[in-house]
Write a structure and sequence with these properties.
300 residues; alpha/beta; six-stranded parallel beta sheet; 13 helices; 46% helix
Length: 300
């Protein structure tokens, strides 16, 4: 396996982020630590990947916040066994709370009934409102991902997208745009796209109604290049308060043949001395995500 035949595309979530090179380095390290812990035989294949991050952050994180982020990854990396990521360990985290997720669970249906569903989701992920309003920076990030995916299809690269939070919306919309540019018949042999979403808001009604293709005829409604979609949702993560995409996108699985699977996990990230169940590093280093990435590497 070489970088010329396999590509990993990373799409980060919302909020302040380190600069592009630092964030990509942290994501690489988190994924690599998970593989090293549980699937050491796949490290060489991972290191040979062509890796690109689609960066769209408006605010750059630095100073104490960046050091706290690094410390969080270091602490997660020190967990040496998959069993260290179970509920028992999660329950010991400082400041652990289910309140925000509970509010979203209860509030989303009510807000949706009075036409305020999109506004409620955007309170959790402000980038959603900006994107839906036509923010050129965010649309440019989506188009960059389309460009990278088109290049993968053109050259026959097998491609995995790992997207967190708002990045999952960009990834989904880019995959739908890709279908408009390239017939699924372009996929032959090993060529194709697989998707991993982490802490994604895609199952929320207000978000699904605004995804690319949502108003298209049934035959054109879904991305058609995705072979497998693995969705990971952490307990108490308010962004993915609806934790199952498989039921909401069953028509995609039926019409396109995409294999869609959901996993609920415990995110052990701690930021600013409080449990942070939405934090990307806690997802990226998790044994379930490492297993998914290892399985994709093994399939190459």
């Amino acid at each position: 396996m070489t970088a010329s035949s396999d590509r990993l595309l990373l799409v980060h979530g919302g909020g302040p982020q380190p600069d592009a090179s630092m964030l990509e380095s942290l994501w690489r390290e988190a994924l690599r630590r998970g593989l090293q812990r549980d699937h050491g035989k796949r490290l060489a294949a991972f290191d040979d990947l062509s890796i690109s991050m689609v960066y769209h952050a408006r605010e750059v994180e630095s100073g104490a916040a960046l050091e706290d982020r690094k410390s969080c990854l270091q602490a997660l990396s020190a967990l040496g066994k998959p069993k260290d990521f179970r509920r028992r360990q999660y329950e010991t985290l400082p400041g652990k709370s289910a309140l925000r997720e509970f509010v979203m669970d209860v509030g989303a249906p009510v807000a949706g009934a009075v036409g305020l569903g999109a506004r409620l989701e955007a309170l959790q992920v402000p980038e959603l409102a900006s994107y839906w309003a036509g923010d050129t920076r965010l649309i440019g990030a989506r188009d960059k991902l389309v460009e990278l995916l088109s290049d993968s299809l053109k050259h026959g690269y097998r491609t995995l997208i790992v997207a967190h939070c708002f990045g999952s919306v960009l990834a989904y919309d880019a995959l739908w745009q890709l279908t408009q540019l390239h017939s699924p018949a372009t996929i032959q042999g090993r060529t194709g796209v697989d998707l991993i979403t982490l802490g994604a808001p895609l199952a929320a009604d207000a978000v699904r109604k605004r995804l690319a293709g949502a108003d298209a005829p049934p035959a054109q409604r879904f991305p058609r290049h995705v072979g497998r979609w693995a969705n990971f949702a952490a307990e108490d993560d308010p962004v993915c308060h609806d934790k199952s995409v498989a039921d909401d996108f069953r028509a995609m699985a039926d019409s396109v043949g995409t294999v869609i699977e959901d996993r609920v996990i415990y995110n052990l990230a701690v930021r600013a001395e409080r449990s942070a169940p939405h934090h990307s590093a806690g997802y990226l280093v998790h044994p379930a995500v490492a297993q998914e990435v290892a399985g994709w590497l093994r399939g190459g």
